[in-house]
Amino acid sequence: MKRGGVYLLAAVAIAIMFSGSALAQGDASYYFVTYYSNNVSGAPDATVRFINDGNSPYFDGYLFPYFFVFDDSQELQECGICEISPDGLLSEDVKTELTSNTLTGIVPARGVIKVYEYFERAGLRGWATHIERATPTSGAYATTEAPLADSNLSDTEYSSLYDLCYYAQQLGSGKAAITCTTEDSDF
Fold this sequence. Notes:
The protein has a single domain (26-172), classed as Jelly Rolls. It has three helices and nine strands. The chain has helices at residues 2-21, 94-98, 155-172, and strands at residues 31-36, 47-52, 65-71, 76-81, 89-93, 111-117, 124-133, 141-147, 149-150. A hairpin with a 7-residue loop joins strand 7 (124-133) and strand 8 (141-147). The longest helix has 20 residues, at 2-21. It is globular.
């Protein structure tokens, strides 16, 4: 009888797992944040990567991440929209694509990156590498990778991001626009 109870318990656990509470859940996130640090000469470069999970029925499944790159004084430095095909991978280099054409002409050493799916559709999944000092006195750096944080987007933040990007690119006369790479081309 003990053996039958163990099998029954295992069957119930598997049924709960497949009932939608564990495997069928996705999320409806379309707004993410992360940070970058040690964006300095001699340090390795950080990377922000997004995949399109292929679950979007619109625009032939393409998703459009809108990047907003801030320095550590909370000033927008660069922004712009890229595209990712269904099941595609977009990999953006922090030094050469997200902070190389800043509004101020100064490359920030650290700051915040916010990413918003332009049409508010779920399906983006993102990760970022972070460059950390191994020790304060050594010249060595360590690289870690973590998922981007899902965030809440208020109406005020939504309006502010678009306005900031528009004015930065208008006032910058060609500055403040990020460079998007072709999918999978920078590996």
